[in-house]
Amino acid sequence: MRPMSAPPPRIPPIQALLAFEAVARLRSMTQAADALNVTPSAVSHRIRQLEAQLGLKLFSGRGDWVPSPEGAAYLARVREALAALQDHPSAASGKGPAPVRLRVAVTPTFSRQLLLPRLALFRHAYPDIELMLQVAIPIHHVTAEEADIELRFGTGPFPDRESMHLLSDEVCPVCSPEYLREAGPFDDGFESAESVARAHLIRSPLEPWRTWFRACGIGLPEPASGNQFNDLGLVLDAAVAGFGVALMRLKLGQSWLDSGRLVRLSRRSVRSPHDYFLCWKPGTLERWECAAFVDWLRQALR
User: Average per-residue pLDDT in the chain?
Assistant: First the structure.
């Protein structure tokens, strides 16, 4: 008598997988229902059905429909599977499916310091996505070519785009050790008009000095003269070269501190008025690869 073989694992219903992907992408039960042409209660039932079958809690439960850590990991696999089902290779030509291309516009220093060190994780999670990075100019929101997803730097909102807040940061004055020996010491933590007056201030329209002045009660106007740069990485490189004191975004500039090229002049840090946002044209996140990148980057920077 042959031994009984174990039953094959149950594959979740495609309707449940589609409901899960739509809610995770749109962050709304109602919008997901509209996209799937069903009622919100039907979407809710399908997600409960999927959670019961998997034994997982797919969403965080905070009411904003953000996937839980387990849900985010499963979401990546669901999107890969749905993308595979959508491929229709031509038997006559013998050619496989065309690569899925994703065009992302990012600001230069953010790309080098925060995005590129993490991109290997994205490549391993989504090997079928061919990523095309291009440079975006901060504040002016100018890109060389049309992009699917843009990183924007500023205060938002952006009337021509849908957006998601990605990252906040704090600023602190920094300089090179050599410049500190030359112009310092700044024993008051660079928190007085006297210390500011003794230093060369490196200027940038991306991170004005008035943020620091207001927080410290320094009654000085925004500097109107001195070396100026329109890229935050160049600002920090100029500080390394001894140009003077720069106002550094701490998350963005951590590698300059870790290497000892720059040192903080104050223990205080001040919330920058400028944040990073991911932006896209309405309807873009209906493409699975765009939704996957947005979700991945938000999780990667958490």
Answer: 87
Fold of 170-270: D-Maltodextrin-Binding Protein; domain 2 (3.40.190)
pLDDT in tens, 84-100: 776 655 444 555 556 78
> What are the angstrom distances between the C-alpha of 104 and each of 87, 111, 135, 279?
23, 11, 9, 10
Q: How many angstroms separate the CA atoms of 273 and 166, rounded?
A: 14
Where in the sequence of the chain do the CATH 1.10.10.10 domains occur? 14-85
For the segment 23-70, what is each residue's pLDDT rounded down to a tens digit? Answer: 888 888 888 888 787 788 888 888 988 998 898 899 987 777 888 888
Closest CA to 29 of 45, 13, 51: 45
Q: Distance between CA 162 and CA 284 in Å, rounded? A: 9
Q: What's the pTM value of the predicted model, to 2 decimals?
A: 0.70
